[in-house]
Amino acid sequence: MSQKFLQAEMDNSSIIDEAKWSWRNAVSMGLIDEDDTSVLFQSWDRLKLYTQHLIDSFSHPNALHAVAIKTQPHPKVLERIVDWGLGLEAASMEEVKKALNAGVSPDKIVFDSPVKTKKEILYCHEKVKGIRLNVNSIEELNRIPENPNFQVGIRINPQVETGAPEVYDVSNDESKFGVPISEKDIIINAIIKYPVTLLHIHSGSQMANLDSAVNAICLLRDIALEANHRLQSDGSSRRIQTLDIGGGLVPEKLILGQTSKMQEYASSLRLRCPELWEFELITEFGQWNYFYTGYAISKIEYSILKGTKYITYIHIGADFLLRDAYVKPRGISFKVLDSNANPKTTKKVVHDIAGPLCFAGDYLAKNIELPVAEESDLLLLTGTGSNSYGLWSRHCSRSIPSFFGVDFKNKELDKLSSRVNLFAEI
Ligand SMILES: Cc1ncc(COP(=O)(O)O)c(C=O)c1O
């Protein structure tokens, strides 16, 4: 599938066509029933486009693009990512095991949990040989075996202002993540003393300020070069070989003929930090890879008219889109479809979109203009591919919806998992 074709597919009308096709086929194949009040979709074409665009933007001869598992942990999605040759970033031991189950080789797993137990580190040493393990503090280095069977990295807090929203900002002075870069001497002494060959930063999520993100990577490079110089002077053959630059880019629509933010980021790094192409590179993008690759359809249970606006009640809310309901809407789009999944074109009026939870904050949007959404219509939500399925909340104990994989180009639809209530047995 050519990149050009895929990019041409990215315009908004095509995702509506895709969603329409997906819903109708799921219904006609008998893959969803009355209880499927909402359904989630993963577009393979779009995910392939984003991950390939990431690889092409860096064009690095020795790169491991480890996609963050927490962003979309569905086992079948992880298997696809692994099939395409990418790696996986794990934020917990459970995610390390998920990565192994998806069939990835240990050297393509990056283990970044800030709270690893001694037992987990030993497990990696004995059973996951070759994994990359980033410590969160100098203290954690004392837990590393003398001759580890894995690559050891130190996470550094670059202490830069990335413009990430406060809850996703991990680079402030108070951050619980990483060793502050202001403690450079301590970091370099630790590199000399412990078997460290990797340096890691993840400056924040939804970083608005790419310049600072680039600055942070330049600082990481400076420490690596200085440490390597010290190691050489000390007669050691060990070197920092790998720079892990984390993730953190704001999701973007890829538009044919326009330079993407990802391309700008990589070009700026090439200019200001060309040495990055001499080290092994690891990236850990999550949200950027997934956001625009997922969509969801909910049945509209009903709408009520309150004053001049409609409150429309649907079957996914703050249980699925926690970040949007609890923090700030991330730009998810809404489209009213009729029961046959055709976009409604009637006159637009003001709506609030209310989720199903018994919680006053469970709104996905307020005061948006849509054709009147009525009982038996459907609501299409686009931009639900990241930090949504993976954050599913047990609040009000609702079931996780059925999940489908869609190859729209080849007109293939697979049910990847059925509606499930994970909390029923506890
Ligand atoms: C260590 C680490 N790497 C990568 C990511 C992925 O970040 P994003 O989804 O913003 O690209 C995160 C997100 O929390 C993270 O904590």
Gyration radius over CA: 23 Å
Name the helix and strand elements from N-terminus to C-terminus, one letter apiece: HHEHEHEHEHEHEEHEHEHEHEEHEEEEEE
Count of domain modules: 2
Q: What is the overall pLDDT average?
A: 94
Bound molecule types: pyridoxal-5'-phosphate
The biggest sheet amounts to: 9 strands, mixed
CATH topology of the largest domain: TIM Barrel
Helix tally equals 12
Distance between the termini: 45 Å
- Reported CATH architecture of the largest domain: Alpha-Beta Barrel
Superfamily at the CATH H level of the largest domain? Alanine racemase
Q: What fraction, in percent, of the residue positions are helical? A: 25-40%
Q: Which class best fits the helix and strand makeup? A: alpha/beta
Segments where pLDDT lies below 50 for 5+ residues? none
Number of E-state strands? 18
Percentage of β-strand residues: 15-25%
| Name of the CATH first level of the largest domain | Alpha Beta
Overall 3D form: elongated
